[in-house]
Automatic annotation (TrEMBL):
Keyword Oxidoreductase included in the entry's annotation: yes
MF (Gene Ontology): 2-oxoglutarate-dependent dioxygenase activity; iron ion binding
PANTHER family: ECTOINE DIOXYGENASE (PTHR20883:SF48), PHYTANOYL-COA DIOXYGENASE DOMAIN CONTAINING 1 (PTHR20883)
The protein's name: Ectoine hydroxylase-related dioxygenase (Phytanoyl-CoA dioxygenase family)
Cofactor(s) required for function per UniProt: Fe(2+)
Taxonomic placement: Bacteria, Pseudomonadati, Pseudomonadota, Alphaproteobacteria, Hyphomicrobiales
Alphabetic keyword roster: Dioxygenase, Oxidoreductase
Pfam families reported in the protein's UniProt record: PhyH
Length: 360
């Protein structure tokens, strides 16, 4: 017990030394560690003190040029350099080139059918036991499939295992250029028919672009079930945030997702038209995985035949070390822990830019 405390203290001392800053008083040991780990975006060219951010909205962060490596103008040169130095394999180089150009990647048969079946059976068991309660979210009177479940990995161990599957984590770490941290899961029995969007308005990072997602087909996906759709290359379009479409934090507090449907969704439909973008449908076999970039525009296509299920698990991963927040709700992400555990504004070292954000 004593040696654990000593080694915890030694570990903390090392973290502090490396970070070169003093402790924030008033936090318990665990909270202090967490606060330090997520204190600011250390790789950002303009670091931010998370404790100074009053309103977590994209317009309140500086225009950092610290993009993920595959978003940088010389990404292809960097890929060749890493390949030549044997830091990545020929297959990884191919993935990286494709990601840079198109903002997504399809890994056929990435997860074996036995794992898929066992994971889905565990999910169904949790529903049958009443450990997970799904709302109906009926799309029509004859829609018999249940609605989605948010974060089922917190209840179902096998979903948590799949979220942390090394092949998925390694892929995301490769394309993000930093260690991928599992954040959120969504399980669905049926097509979402969700309007086109970029995940960056829901799961935002500072600096931008440090999110990756994947969609795991938990069965063979029928073409009429409302497959996932995506627009190759749309990750290069300008990011669209709440501020850009006139949604203020109070609009979202008062109207919730109605404000998003009124302003953001039409803006994204316009963007798709203006870019004359080519829509792709993810017609997957069980175990196929589609990975996408933080800003790739995607959604759920119409369910042409309501009787078809469309079983899937979606995972979202953040890159370690960035600030993660929900632009729409103007709130910090749960990966940082409770906001009351954030360091007080100004507790970081002197090189951190202190930026008090103006409430919108
Ligand atoms: O499954 C879908 O249809 C859409 C899922 C999605 O957009 C997401 O989880 O980010
Ligand atoms: Fe999404």
């Amino acid at each position: 017990m004593m040696s654990r405390v000593v080694s915890q203290a030694a570990g903390l001392a090392r973290v502090l030394k490396a970070a070169g800053r003093t402790l924030t008083l008033g936090l318990d040991l665990k909270a202090r560690k967490r606060a330090i780990r997520y204190h600011y975006a250390p790789k950002a060219d303009i670091p931010i003190d998370i404790g100074c951010v009053e309103v977590f909205r994209a317009e309140n962060f500086p225009d950092s040029k610290s993009q993920p490596w595959l978003d940088q103008p010389d990404a292809l040169v960097q890929v060749e350099r890493r390949l030549a130095r044997r830091k990545i394999t020929a297959k990884q180089a191919e993935i990286c080139r494709f990601w840079h150009e198109h903002g997504y990647y399809v890994a056929r048969g990435a997860i074996d059918p036995a794992t898929i079946d066992a994971t889905w059976a565990a999910y169904e068991d949790a529903i049958t036991r009443g450990d997970l309660i799904l709302s109906q979210e009926k799309a029509a009177d004859d829609d018999l499939h249940p609605g989605r479940s948010l974060n089922p990995h917190q209840t179902v161990g096998l979903i948590d295992d799949l979220l942390k599957n090394p092949a998925l984590l390694d892929f995301c770490s490769l394309v993000l250029g930093r260690k991928a941290i599992p954040f959120q899961t969504i399980a669905s029995h049926k097509g979402s028919q969700q309007s086109e969007h970029s995940d960056s308005i829901h799961m935002t990072t500072y600096p931008l672009g440090y999110l990756a997602a994947c969609w795991v087909a938990m069965e063979d996906i029928h073409v009429d079930s409302g497959p996932l759709v995506y627009y190759p290359g749309s990750h290069r379009w300008p990011y669209v945030f709440s501020h850009d479409v006139g949604i203020s934090p109070s609009d979202f507090q008062e109207k919730g997702y109605a404000a998003y449907a009124e302003r953001y969704e039409p803006a994204m439909r316009r963007a798709v038209e203006e870019h004359d973008a080519q829509k792709q449908h993810f017609i997957a076999r069980k175990g196929d995985v589609l990975f996408w970039h933080a800003n790739l525009v995607h959604g759920g296509s119409p369910r042409n035949a309501i009787q078809h299920s469309r079983k899937a698990l979606v995972h979202h991963y953040f890159a370690e070390g960035c600030i993660c927040y929900h632009d729409l709700a103007a709130s910090a992400s749960a990966v940082h822990g409770p906001t009351e555990n954030f360091p007080v504004c100004g507790a970081s070292d002197a090189s951190v830019v202190k930026r008090a954000s103006a409430p919108a």
